[in-house]
Amino acid sequence: MNKLDLHGVRHHEVDLMVENFIFLNQNEVPLNITCGSSSRMVELVQKVLDRNGSDYIVGKGLDFGRITLLKL
Predict the structure, then answer these.
(1) Can you give the pTM of this predicted structure?
(2) CA 49 to CA 69: how far, in whole Å?
(3) Which domain holds residue 12?
(4) How many domains does the chain fold into?
(5) Which residues, at least 6 apart from 37, have a Cβ–Cβ distance to it below 8 Å?
(6) Which residues have CB under 8 Å from 25's CB, separation 6+?
(7) According to the model, what pLDDT value does residue 34 have?
(8) Ordered per-residue pLDDT tens for the chain, 72 residues
(9) Please, is 60 exposed, middle or buried when counting C-beta atoms within 10 Å of its C-beta (0-12, 13-18, 19+)?
(10) Which is nearest to 23 in space by CA: 56, 43, 49, 41?
């Protein structure tokens, strides 16, 4: 599974990074995006995924901060 780790990435960089990652790896779903413990970062990633009509799962509990892209 291809992974994108957003630790250390600034909020204004997230949109372009996530969009590039999902389109460059669209044939290799599921994809894993690690946002860390920042709820703002999770929101920014979800905004990109929603804009592109993606199906995804947002981790809860111990998996908070991880988003798994199931379908693009």
Answers:
(1) 0.92
(2) 8
(3) 2-71
(4) 1
(5) 64, 65
(6) 2, 31
(7) 97
(8) 699 999 999 999 999 999 999 999 999 999 999 999 999 999 999 999 999 999 999 999 989 999 999 998
(9) exposed
(10) 49
C-beta pairs of 47-54 under 8 Å, 24+ apart in sequence: 47/15, 48/14, 48/15, 48/18, 48/19, 48/22, 49/18, 49/22, 52/19, 52/22, 54/22
The DSSP line for 1-52 is -EEEE-TT--HHHHHHHHHHHHHHTGGG-SEEEE--S-HHHHHHHHHHHHHT
Residue-level pLDDT at 72: 87
What pLDDT is stored for residue 35 in this prediction? 95
- Which CATH number does the domain housing residue 24 bear? 3.30.1370.110
